[in-house]
Amino acid sequence: MELSHFNEAGKARMVDVTAKNDTVREAVAEGRVTMRPQTLELVKKGAMGKGDVLAVAQVGGIMGAKRTWELIPMCHPLLLTGVNIEFTLREEISAIDIRATVKTTGKTGVEMEALTAVSVAALTIYDMCKAVDKDMIVEYIRLTAKSGGKSGNYQREESV
């Protein structure tokens, strides 16, 4: 397997996707923010001083997906056709699970956009809650599925 982000001289490059066909592409990424039970309870009740944590994190995740190309040096700017962020409150482990689904029709995939969406949503949760819980842990950020493009479909086998 060859890395495509290097030219013949071994220097970094943005991959030329001009000749590739447009295909429908989708990627799903997940992550988790673990926190104290009292912090999760404040999030659940909407009682955090800065406002509705999950509403702000949802917008943050969407914005992160849309701006991935500005953050990750070799990513192409993409016309995203859909970004969905879902949160699951996991009281048994005092955590919030985050799932981002990103879609486009284009020449390159949206894996990085999905991963960035989860990352920014998780960091937004941390920012919104850090006044009461600096011990939160952002963890398990990973690609869980992708479809479309030359490499075809991918589905992660194990879950957390």
Automatic annotation (TrEMBL):
<comment type="subunit">
    <text>Homohexamer; trimer of dimers.</text>
</comment>
<dbReference type="InterPro" id="IPR047594">
    <property type="entry name" value="MoaC_bact/euk"/>
</dbReference>
<dbReference type="InterPro" id="IPR050105">
    <property type="entry name" value="MoCo_biosynth_MoaA/MoaC"/>
</dbReference>
<comment type="similarity">
    <text>Belongs to the MoaC family.</text>
</comment>
<comment type="pathway">
    <text>Cofactor biosynthesis; molybdopterin biosynthesis.</text>
</comment>
<keyword id="KW-0456">Lyase</keyword>
<dbReference type="InterPro" id="IPR036522">
    <property type="entry name" value="MoaC_sf"/>
</dbReference>
<comment type="function">
    <text>Catalyzes the conversion of (8S)-3',8-cyclo-7,8-dihydroguanosine 5'-triphosphate to cyclic pyranopterin monophosphate (cPMP).</text>
</comment>
<dbReference type="Pfam" id="PF01967">
    <property type="entry name" value="MoaC"/>
</dbReference>
<protein>
    <recommendedName>
        <fullName>Cyclic pyranopterin monophosphate synthase</fullName>
        <ecNumber>4.6.1.17</ecNumber>
    </recommendedName>
</protein>
<keyword id="KW-0501">Molybdenum cofactor biosynthesis</keyword>
<feature type="binding site">
    <location>
        <begin position="74"/>
        <end position="76"/>
    </location>
    <ligand>
        <name>substrate</name>
    </ligand>
</feature>
<feature type="active site">
    <location>
        <position position="127"/>
    </location>
</feature>
<feature type="binding site">
    <location>
        <begin position="112"/>
        <end position="113"/>
    </location>
    <ligand>
        <name>substrate</name>
    </ligand>
</feature>
<dbReference type="InterPro" id="IPR023045">
    <property type="entry name" value="MoaC"/>
</dbReference>
<dbReference type="InterPro" id="IPR002820">
    <property type="entry name" value="Mopterin_CF_biosynth-C_dom"/>
</dbReference>
<dbReference type="GO" id="GO:0061799">
    <property type="term" value="F:cyclic pyranopterin monophosphate synthase activity"/>
</dbReference>
<dbReference type="GO" id="GO:0006777">
    <property type="term" value="P:Mo-molybdopterin cofactor biosynthetic process"/>
</dbReference>
<feature type="domain" description="Molybdopterin cofactor biosynthesis C (MoaC)">
    <location>
        <begin position="14"/>
        <end position="149"/>
    </location>
</feature>
